[in-house]
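Below is a filled-in request sheet from our internal design queue. Each sheet records the structural input a requester submitted and the sequence that came back. We keep these sheets so that new team members can see what a complete request looks like end to end.

REQUESTER: design group, bay 2
PRIORITY: normal
MODE: inverse folding
CHAIN LENGTH: 305
BACKBONE (tokenized):
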């Protein structure tokens, strides 16, 4: 099956207690596509400026990511600058330069419009709907969003939610979207808006998955060194959707496996700045860590006397 992602490609400057990196490759679609590329071919829809380095294009192409949908406009590439304290779950945005992103209108190439799997990254919900109008009959659509759209474009976001199968957001966004402090009640309310599955990312506390019938919880993988959490959520989504595209298994069991693969990709992502760790992974490393997740969470059933 084919997978299309619509989101941002950016140049990031990030500072954490463990170092910093300036004007490195970033953006939601970049992290997503790189993580997903270990499972399937990815078609990317985004925009960059004339200043976007050729080396970054060559990197994306080396991952067999289809860049036919990557627009290049006159102007500068979207830039984000942020900082993390020792509480690495939360980024402090210091500067955002939208640049060519302000002019971005997703225009899917003809070869993308029959995609069976679609991921709508964290962009204006009106643009998300433009994408949905261009694809024919996808088997599964997932989306991300953020507090900016929840607060500023709620009606448009609600329309998107009614058209997607899976929503992937963090715990703060889930609480705000549902106006509920309790995540279980929040999940029930969000699912009532239309999605079949809700996945709540909780940073170092792992992931929760809810559907109409069941709930599933996965821990975060314990790491000795966490250097940069930028893009962890997008890497999770890429691993999750990449595995689903590869397997074609949308059952409860298949989605649970995809959650673990998403968690695996996020755990690798935070081990270095930008896409440094994701760029040099092997599929064997990914599958080995998937198995380690199984050992990490295994416990014996109760013995009957």
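RETURNED SEQUENCE:
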């Amino acid at each position: 099956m084919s997978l299309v992602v619509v989101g941002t490609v950016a140049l990031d400057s990030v500072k954490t207690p463990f170092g910093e990196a300036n004007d490195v490759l970033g953006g939601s679609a970049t992290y997503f596509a790189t993580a997903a590329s270990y499972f399937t071919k990815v078609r990317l829809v985004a925009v960059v400026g004339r200043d976007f380095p050729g080396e970054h294009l060559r990197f994306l192409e080396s991952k067999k990511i289809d860049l036919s949908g990557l627009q290049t406009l006159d102007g500068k590439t979207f830039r984000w600058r942020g900082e993390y304290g020792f509480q690495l779950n939360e980024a402090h945005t210091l500067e955002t330069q939208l640049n060519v992103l302000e002019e971005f209108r997703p225009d899917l190439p003809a070869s993308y419009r029959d995609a069976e799997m679609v991921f709508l990254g964290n962009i204006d919900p009106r643009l998300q709907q433009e994408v949905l109008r261009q694809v024919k009959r996808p088997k599964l659509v997932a989306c991300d969003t953020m507090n900016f759209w929840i607060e500023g474009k709620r009606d448009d976001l609600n329309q998107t939610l009614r058209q997607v199968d899976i929503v992937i957001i963090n715990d703060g966004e889930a609480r705000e979207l549902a106006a509920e402090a309790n995540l279980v009640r929040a999940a029930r309310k969000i699912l009532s808006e239309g999605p079949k599955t809700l996945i709540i990312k909780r940073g170092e506390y792992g992931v929760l998955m809810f559907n109409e019938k069941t709930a599933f919880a996965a821990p975060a993988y314990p790491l000795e060194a966490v250097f940069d959490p930028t893009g962890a959520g997008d890497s999770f989504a890429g691993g999750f959707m990449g595995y689903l595209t590869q397997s074609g298994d949308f059952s409860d069991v298949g989605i649970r496996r995809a959650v673990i693969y998403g968690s695996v990709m996020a755990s690798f992502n935070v081990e270095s700045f930008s896409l440094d760790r994701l760029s040099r992974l092997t599929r064997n490393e990914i599958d080995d860590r998937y198995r380690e997740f199984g050992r990490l969470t295994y416990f014996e059933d109760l013995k009957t006397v």
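SHEET NOTES:
- DSSP finds eleven helices and 13 strands in the chain.
- Residues 184 and 210 are 8 Å apart (CA to CA).
FILED BY: M.R.
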